[in-house]
Amino acid sequence: MRSIRTPKKKARALAALAGAAMLLTACSGAVSGPEQDGEAAPAPAADESLTLTVYSKFSSREYDVVTKGLNNLKQKFPNIEINHEGNQDDDKLAASIRAGNPPDVAISFYTDNLGTWCDNGSFTDLAPYLERDGIDLNIIPEAVRSYTEYQGQRCAMPMLADVYGFYYNKEMLAEAGISEPPKNTSELFEYTKKLTEFNPDGSIKVAGFLPSMPFYANQAQIWAPNFGATWLDEQGGSNLAGSPEWKEMFRFQQRLVDFYGYENLERFTAGLGDEFSADHAFHRGEVAMMIDGEYRTAFLKDQTPELDYGTAPPPVADSKPDRYGGAFTTGTIIAIPRGAENPGAAWELIKQMSLDTDTLVQLGNGLRNVPSTLPALEDPGLEADEQFQTFLDLFSGGKLLPNPTTVIGDAHLKAVNDFAARWQAGKVPDLDKGLAEVDAQINDALAQKSGGN
């Protein structure tokens, strides 16, 4: 699912997603569906024949894995056919809702659009279905429940999750006399210095750990949980300037940048391979340690099976030792678009894909993502080697932190990552003032949406 993976998500281009946000806004209230009275549409009869159309962004091998999972519904409803249309991004989904011709089921990698989907009615409120069928959402970890609802409204369900942990090259650490991965930022900095190799001209040959943002999975939102940094205050406003945790994170980033030299880092990263290719820097031994999602284990097995690597919880801020064992999480979501032709049958498919243990285990094994319910996580059929087990432990450890669900899509994420890029380049002379400006930018966007614009 590369889900949302923020990586694959990230790779899907922020600019394109900004366009999706505009389409989403245009959808507001535009279409009514058969379940517009707010009641759950009835499930189809076991012998009722119909076709459910499903939009997703899956393609190639992953498309086949997900299609197989979708067709598990035929065990209960043999007369329902599944028309799975892959390579459908959020732009296309929003356009179909606006035009009054949506799919029955929508699968999205990009959870940061969920607040808009819920707020403007593009996704159906699932509360009547959950209540009717007596669904216990406590089988889903709290952090995952958080990123699949908006202001108490559940308009989507999770369909697998991504968790971001720490990868390290065992051979490189051993050669440097390091016996275990770093647990805090002081250790990470010292290990980085030991593991980094420079060429005779001073350029970087091997980077111990890269601080460059945004680069690969080095996104501000992925680092933030390791510092205990959260986004909003109790009133729902951006609170970066008032957060010691954000300041500690950016000061640590700058400390690493200063060690390498900004221009040196820029030259080095410019020559590194694509994030989702065999030329990835970690695959090639050009980076010794990194933060990445669980899906990277599948890439390494397929593209660099000989690499001896380990996984661990991400190192945490020196001031937050209790955060060790926590991580950033996000995931794929599945929902009923407003105006879906077969909402009752769509809900049966959503239950299959988000709550059925056998289906989630099948998908988790096929996509190498983390199942999003605790029963699936504990199922003996779930395949987990030593490296993948780290992510299962992080997921069930109770210390996950997701992005907040807002009506401004990924605008807050883009604002902070843009700031991180300026900060590391030395273009922000005053950290407090710079973060206050980011707060103002985010709060202005929130205020405009809250005002109905």
Automatic annotation (TrEMBL):
Keyword Transport: yes
GO CC aspect terms: ATP-binding cassette (ABC) transporter complex, substrate-binding subunit-containing
Family to which the UniProt record says this protein belongs: Belongs to the bacterial solute-binding protein 1 family.
Keyword annotations of the record: Signal, Transport
Record InterPro entries: SBP
UniProt source species: Amycolatopsis cihanbeyliensis
Name the record gives this protein: Carbohydrate ABC transporter substrate-binding protein (CUT1 family)
Biological process per Gene Ontology, one example term: maltodextrin transmembrane transport
Lineage of the organism: Bacteria, Bacillati, Actinomycetota, Actinomycetes, Pseudonocardiales
One annotated GO molecular function: maltose binding
Signal peptide feature range: 1-32
